Amino acid sequence: MEIDWLSVVFRWLHILPAIIAVGGTIFMRAALVPALGELPEAQRASLHEAVRSRWSKWIMGAITFLLLSGFFNFFTLTGKYKLPPVYQMLFGIKFLLALAIFALASLLSGRTALAQRMRANARTWLNLNIALAVLLVCISGVMRNITMNAPLKNPPPPTSTAPAFEPAAN
Length: 170
Fold this sequence. Notes:
Elements: H1 5-37, H2 41-80, H3 85-108, H4 113-119, H5 122-149
Helix pairs in contact: 1-2, 1-5, 2-3, 3-5
């Protein structure tokens, strides 16, 4: 068995930032935002700014790694496999969803006046971002299944001509 370690590393560089970004968004919606609502205004503003400034760096890193590794993975697959047109269509939908998710995450962790206005309604925007992320993950699962079943463009020659295993008769 031969392993393409570069592809494995890029898959990890795609999955791990997605876990961080989506998990962090779920944490914010399920735990942080409700907890902030219970604090006095001065503490809420201070804690929120501390979290926002730290989280924005993680979001920018996740977006960078997701874009780089996503394009690497896509072009690697299209170079190895003859993918059906539905795969290309799903990639386009997934990419547009990812851009929307990135925009929302960037705005929610940003410093602009628009970001501050959006954070005033954080529950709604976080709910939307989570819903988009779940849809994106579901599309990814379909794409992975298509990729696994796609025929190779140039199949490698058989590696063994040994006969199939037959159990011995008793």
